[in-house]
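Quick one: structure for this chain?
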Amino acid sequence: MRKEYDFSNARKNPSASQLKKRITIRLDGDALDYFKSISAEVGIPYQSLINLYLRDCAASRRKLNLNWK
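Got it. Here's what it folds into:
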């Protein structure tokens, strides 16, 4: 390994802004089981499936209709 490296011609990673962030989220067991069962059917990891669903909701600006009784 070299003692020094020349980074003068280096450039930023173009996909660095698209990296995912690690968070902690608490989900109901039923909701998690639902996404896990779908993930087993389609062969996509359940975390990726949840991310795809949330991205679709955000892209279509879908909102929940919450009515408290």
